[in-house]
Design a protein that fits this description.
Chain lengths: 104, 381
């Protein structure tokens, strides 16, 4: 397309339209991408952060791998999970698929 | 939302935009109402996000917003064309313009068609000079001595309205010109009307045009005429070749005329050839991806463009950029976004067959592939 912004146009309608024909699609796409992609992604990240904030020792969890266990120790990015047979493994927080109720 | 690969987040806005454009074409809505619709859509969408209401309300408000924007873009395109036309139509003028493209035209190949970007007009009655910005197709009955990038002046012409509505209700020539961002076409009869004002010492557009034509005609010398016609159509996308009527009618008879149009499949061939070639060299994958993007850009610059090719090229570039940035990409999301972008910048594309077939068929293929995939998954369970 050879659409140009006619800043030197004496006709105000042409001036406004030449700007709007370029600005409106860009603004619409930016708004759409923000509403449909950026905000949901930010919310998802916030929800994940909230999920990990509630973690504490003694909570039963399931990993994406299908392992079940109880949280033994929490560090900044990882947790130490204790299996039912007493074995302890260190996993990242992102590998938690489901948080169950606290161990009674 | 992005978790669902079958449903692109841009699909509802895309459908709303298409509906808005179609409604505006059939039942024109005044622009203040459309601006009101846009404001309503934005307010509702922001309110839904702020209050965390149900997702359906957000989709509905976005549909109002995108539908109104689609209708407004078409409205603006029509007002822009009409306003420019009212300035210049039916009065003797001199126009100053820059040559942006040049093609050989006509059955005997003795004429030229120039695409010129008009920068200013001068009314012969008042001698008043007005800056403008629009393109014109300029048909000449001889081979023009102008190059791309030249500034020319065309003296004493009267431009008439290209209004030619079709009986079938299909888009007329005026709509085609508006889609191409061209205001009108001009048929010049004498060489004296057109004069060269200035030729820049270096012009990127002229350099690219020369490379494109030199490589095209170098191939013509080396290939047989039949092979060259196929290569020209499929790999260069040049539909203005002489003697392709016979070829076209043969393909029409077989129902395979679309094979002559350069489309996504051809860029796939191009990428496949280069990927195979790169696999012979032990260079980092990052460099290979970057080189492939660069080659596709060059291929785009050195060939004739069309909507299916643009779609395939942009989709490829989006996917490769995603790979370069280590981001996951989904073809359906990318295709919806490309379709939406094209419609927002040029809403008249919606009424033309190349756009409809290109995007319609690609969307249909993706949905069928998803359907097939989900059926297989069900059978496995």
């Amino acid at each position: 397309m050879h659409t140009a912004i006619m800043l030197n146009s004496p006709d105000p309608i042409i001036l406004i339209l030449s700007i709007a024909r370029i600005a409106l699609p860009i603004a619409t796409l930016a708004f759409g991408v923000t509403i449909l992609v950026v905000i949901p992604q930010l919310r998802l990240r916030e929800n994940k952060k909230d999920k990990y904030r509630d973690l504490k020792a003694g909570i039963r969890i399931t990993t994406f791998h299908g392992d079940h266990g109880i949280i033994d120790e929490i560090t900044e990015n990882s947790i130490v999970m204790q299996h039912n047979d007493g074995r302890k493994i260190e996993i990242t927080k992102q590998s938690i698929a489901r948080i169950h109720a606290e161990k009674s | 939302m992005l978790k669902n690969r079958k449903q692109s987040p841009f699909l509802a806005p895309l459908l709303a935009t298409a509906c808005g454009i179609t409604t505006q074409a059939w039942f024109p809505i005044p622009w203040p109402i459309l601006i009101l619709g846009i404001t309503l859509g934005i307010t509702l969408a922001l309110l839904t996000l702020y209050k965390q209401l149900h997702h359906t309300i957000l989709t509905a408000s976005l549909c109002i917003f995108f539908g109104s924007v689609g209708a407004l873009t078409l409205c603006m395109q029509k007002i822009y064309t009409t306003t420019q036309q009212t300035i210049i139509l039916n009065q003797p003028i001199d126009i100053q313009a820059t040559v942006t493209d040049k093609e050989v035209w006509g059955a005997r190949q003795q004429s030229d068609v120039l695409r010129i970007a008009v920068t200013s007009i001068q009314f012969r009655s008042t001698h008043q000079k007005t800056p403008v910005s629009f393109d014109i197709f300029c048909y000449l009955p001889y081979h023009a001595r102008f190059d791309i990038g030249d500034t020319i002046i065309i003296k004493d012409i009267v431009i008439k309205s290209p209004n030619m509505p079709t009986r079938s209700g299909n888009p007329g020539y005026e709509d085609y010109l508006a889609k191409e961002n061209v205001l009108c076409s001009l048929f010049l009869h004498s060489a004296g009307q057109c004069q060269l004002i200035e030729r820049p010492s270096f012009s990127i557009a002229r350099w690219l045009w020369n490379i494109r034509h030199k490589s095209y005609f170098a191939l013509k010398k080396k290939l047989s005429s039949k092979t060259f016609r196929y290569v020209g159509l499929i790999f260069f996308g040049n539909k203005q070749q002489p003697d392709i009527t016979e070829l076209r009618s043969t393909f029409n008879l077989w129902g395979l005329a679309h094979f002559l149009a350069r489309a996504g499949l051809h860029i796939v061939f191009f990428i496949f050839i280069w990927t195979s070639f790169f696999s012979l060299f032990p260079i980092p994958i990052f460099a290979k991806r970057f080189l492939l993007i660069l080659l596709c850009f060059i291929y785009n610059l050195l060939s004739w463009s069309s909507i299916p090719f643009t779609r395939a090229l942009y989709a490829f570039l989006c996917i490769k950029c995603g790979e370069l940035m280590y981001q996951q990409t989904y073809y359906l999301h990318i295709l919806s976004l490309i379709c939406l972008t094209i419609l927002l910048f040029n809403p008249l594309q919606l009424f033309f067959l190349d756009f409809q077939l290109s995007f319609g068929l690609t969307f249909a293929l993706i949905f069928l592939a998803h359907l097939n995939h989900s059926n297989k998954n069900t059978q496995r369970r």
